[in-house]
Fold this protein.
Amino acid sequence: MAVHETRLLRRETVAEGTTAFYFSKPSGFEHQAGQSLLLTLINPPETDDEGNSRPFTVASAPHEPELMIATRMRDTAFKRVLNTAPIGTTVSIDGPNGEMVLHDDATRPAVFLAGGIGITPFLAMARHAATGRLPHRLYLFYSNRRPEDAAFLGELEDMERINPRYRLIALMAEPEKSTRGWSGEIGFIRREILERYLDNITSPMYYFAGPPPMTMAMQKMLQQIGIAEQAMRYEEFYGY
Ligand SMILES: Cc1cc2nc3c(=O)[nH]c(=O)nc-3n(C[C@H](O)[C@H](O)[C@H](O)COP(=O)(O)OP(=O)(O)OC[C@H]3O[C@@H](n4cnc5c(N)ncnc54)[C@H](O)[C@@H]3O)c2cc1C
């Protein structure tokens, strides 16, 4: 883990109220898919009680030439500054951090449970698995309120054609509020949905990430199924 300086290269809207930020990759920065970094604004024009740093998962995969993070654009000083910073602005990154990386034993499937912006580590892992032709079977359960809120949904759908060992199960909790329409799964991620798509719900390694109410619900559900702590890896995105 080390502190590096990097520059903002560009921004891109990836869902309603959700922006991806691309940064140059400092030489010597190497991460594993699923890891995070601590992003610090240098001399920002405004700040608040939460300070000038936030942890973010690196949503880009290790083989990509740039670093990308994605976040919901809440009205906080940190995000206002990030959203209006001129292209080329220098920021500091400290990392990589975290242990939510894919397990080694490829005979054991990986089940990813993503709540909203909690998709970021799984986007990195899915891109990494597709490009590196990893032998693992991956099941991504991706929950949002509406399709409009689901960052990277198109790419995650298309990835099924690139990686035959990967499966996406997207769920919308409030599809009736969408202007796009939705014909996929409805509601939150729950045991019955896992049972519908997995051959055996007790054998995979489970990974989950999202806002605290979602991660708490996932942990409780997996405990009720009888999944051991060692078979769960998770990241709680506090602040939502
Ligand atoms: C490992 C990790 C990876 C993350 N990855 C992402 C990501 O990829 N994308 C993303 O959007 N977000 C991610 N987050 C969350 C992110 O760091 C921010 O907290 C979130 O984006 C909200 O920031 P904010 O500026 O909108 O709100 P903030 O101003 O940070 O905070 C909003 C609320 O959260 C509370 N809060 C702040 N810090 C803490 C804390 N340490 N513990 C409990 N409550 C706190 C505040 O009191 C406040 O009420 C990650 C967090 C962690 C720990």
Q: What stands out?
A: The radius of gyration is 18 Å. DSSP finds five helices and twelve strands in the chain. Helices lie at 77-84, 120-131, 153-162, 191-197, 212-225.
